[in-house]
Design goal:
This protein is mainly α. It is built from 4 helices and 2 strands. 48% of the residues lie in helices and 10% in strands.
């Protein structure tokens, strides 16, 4: 798992690329659906406990998502893509 700070928007985009609902991410990551819902209602970087953030990020990465840091994409902002 990378040490990249992942934003809420990147998590939402990653779910969209995978065609996953919040419920699917919750089931696959072991993080409760209310927690996923609460985290995604915020703005900025993915917050919460380090174990929660790690579980979400690791689950999405294991499914083929690559998180891109600012500067890794053409417009310079952070993003996501599939492997």
């Amino acid at each position: 798992m990378s040490i990249l700070k992942v934003s809420i928007n990147q998590v939402k985009a990653a779910r969209a690329l995978l065609g996953w609902s919040q419920e699917t991410l919750a089931a696959k990551s072991g993080v409760s659906w209310p927690t996923i819902k609460r985290l995604e209602a915020a703005d900025g970087n993915l917050g919460g406990r380090a174990s929660t953030v790690g579980a979400i990020q690791a689950t999405l990465e294991a499914a083929g998502v690559v998180f891109l840091a600012a500067g890794d994409v053409v417009d310079g902002g952070p993003g996501v893509r599939l492997r």
